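Throughout our pipeline, every protein is held as a single compact record rather than as scattered files. Such a record has a labelled line for the sequence and another for the backbone structure tokens. This encoding replaces a full spatial description with a residue-level series of whole-number codes. For reference, a complete record is included directly beneath this paragraph.
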Amino acid sequence: NCQRKVQQVRIEQEALAAAAQDIQRTFRAHTQRNKVKQQLKAVLTLQRALRGCLARVRRNKLRQTRIDTAENAALNYCVVNVQRVYRGFKSRQRTKQLAATTRACCTVQRALRCFL
């Protein structure tokens, strides 16, 4: 009789221990899933923030490139204009010098022909 009661108590304790293990296992799995969900949410938040930051950096670089291109075009126009004015000036200067040289040659030739 006493052994039966001891066996029954053991069986009940084992059943309680198994039930407790099942509850603990279920609770640990639940908490682990929640932890993984939180980590995934944190990773997604970081990725979203990083992608947004990178997109803003790319946009700013593109804007700066467009501004630089516009500035370069304006600067290029100015440089070409200065070169055009300078080359015209030098050409007119050479033409005047050539005309003066031609007149001097003609004067020398006229004087030489009169002498001869």
Remarks:
- The mean pLDDT is 93.
- The longest helix spans residues 2-115.
- DSSP finds one helix and no strands in the chain.
- The helical segments are 2-115.
